[in-house]
Amino acid sequence: MKEHLSKKGFADILQIYASINRGVSKQVSHFFPNIIPYRKIKVILPSKLDPYWVSGFVAGDGSFVVGIRKKKTENNTFSLYFNFVITQHSKDFELIKLFIQFFDCGTSIIRYNNKISRCDYYVQDINSTLNKIIPHFEKYPLENIKELDYLDFKLIMDMIWKKEHLNANNQIIISNIIKRLNNKRF
User: Fold this and answer.
1) Number of domains in the chain
2) What is the pLDDT of residues 5-30, one digit of tens each?
3) Per residue in 42-82, pLDDT tens?
């Protein structure tokens, strides 16, 4: 094959590069000023998401988040926050909204900043997490390293549900689990 080694093959790659995400960087544009992006194809979203596709998508773009908020109390306990989140570029907001329909829970928002706008689907309540999110991933498991994040998330959610997170020894265990979630595992 090795088409990418020819001038035409390289030009094709540049056209694809110019068509995705933020387009051509200033540096690439300087060296290749005549790049013409491929015409963007209008994507038609399905009316219903496939559960296997959802798990695969989450394996790439989802996160299982747990964090600690320190409380100033006599016994020095902490409170936890948690959420299941899927993040995309804001141009994919219509897709993100389909997760609300799929899971029958959650919220979707668009976040703007100076560099790039993002959109999120997230679930933050314990009942939806335990009754909708976790059962989905039990039936349709993640097929990559994120499965380990999911299992840690599930363990902590179970501890919260049983109020075991209020025990000082369990707080140490939870703190150690949090340290390895989402890209901190290695």
Assistant:
1) 2
2) 787 777 777 777 776 766 777 777 78
3) 778 899 999 999 999 999 999 999 998 876 555 666 788 99
Tell me, yes or no, whether 4 lies in a domain. Answer: yes
Q: Are residues 1 and 57 in the same domain?
A: no
Q: How far is CA 150 from CA 45, 46, 132, 176, 177, in A?
A: 27, 26, 14, 15, 11
SS3 state at 25: coil
Residues 59 and 100 in one domain: yes
What does the pLDDT look like over 55-64, one tens digit per residue? 999 999 999 9
CATH number of the domain within which 94 lies: 3.10.28.10
Q: Is 102 inside any structural domain?
A: yes
pTM score, whole prediction:
0.77
Put the strands of the sheet holding 62-70 in their side by side order: 62-70, 78-89, 118-123, 107-111
Residues 129 and 69 in one domain: yes
Q: Are 178 and 68 in contact (CB under 8 A)?
A: yes
User: Domain containing 164: what range?
Assistant: 51-178
Q: Which of 83, 121, 118 is nearest to 100 (CA)?
A: 121
Rg (CA), the chain: 21
Q: What is the C-alpha separation between 101 and 78, in angstroms, rounded?
A: 33
Dihedral (Cα; 101, 106, 112, 116), 10-degree rounding: -60
